[in-house]
Design brief:
3-stranded antiparallel beta sheet, 3 helices, globular, Peptide Deformylase, 5-stranded antiparallel beta sheet
């Protein structure tokens, strides 16, 4: 497994709509494994394939704390509900944090690395991370959704908000 280079803004690959995955092979499995290693090494909770230079519909989310890694191949949002504004960051935008409004609840349909279909429902921060990564697959970047830029010094003033400081 390998640590891949994370593509930084303003690289044009980040604003492309990604292509659907049609080959569920060893190359895809290796990419998913490498993306996870890269995300962990960068202290993130999510990563999309275009962030490692691959314009395909693949993303992962790992909330840690014993939760399973969510591997999303060709994900489609089938339902959303509620709304909340929280602070987000992004591994492709080092040092940039901002308040972003996203749904509180999301239901997706996606494929596993072997091509089998699954559905997943998520709420709160997990839903936020999933939506952030799916946005990447559609060429939508979080900086276009920022309601208010948050200075990292604000995290020190409000210790309860430190968990919101994690990057996708």
């Amino acid at each position: 497994m390998a640590i891949l280079e994370i593509v930084k803004h303003p690289s044009p690959i980040l604003t492309q709509s990604c292509k659907e995955v049609v080959a569920f092979d060893k190359e895809l499995a290796t990419l998913l494994d490498d993306m996870h290693d890269t995300m962990v090494a960068a202290d993130g909770i999510g990563l999309a394939a275009p962030q490692v230079g691959k314009p395909i519909r693949v993303a992962i989310v790992d909330m840690g704390e014993g939760n399973d890694v969510i591997e999303m191949v060709n994900p489609v949002v089938t339902a959303v509900g509620g709304s909340e504004v929280e602070v987000e960051g992004c591994l492709s935008f080092p040092g940039l944090y901002g308040e972003v409004e996203r749904p509180f609840f999301v239901r997706i349909e996606a494929q596993e690395r072997d091509g089998s279909l699954y559905q997943l429902e998520a709420e709160d921060y997990e839903a936020r991370a999933i939506m952030h990564e799916i946005d990447h697959l559609n060429g939508v970047l979080f900086d276009s959704k920022i309601l208010r830029v948050v200075d990292p010094s604000e995290f020190e003033e409000e210790p309860d908000d430190l968990e919101e400081d994690e990057q996708n």
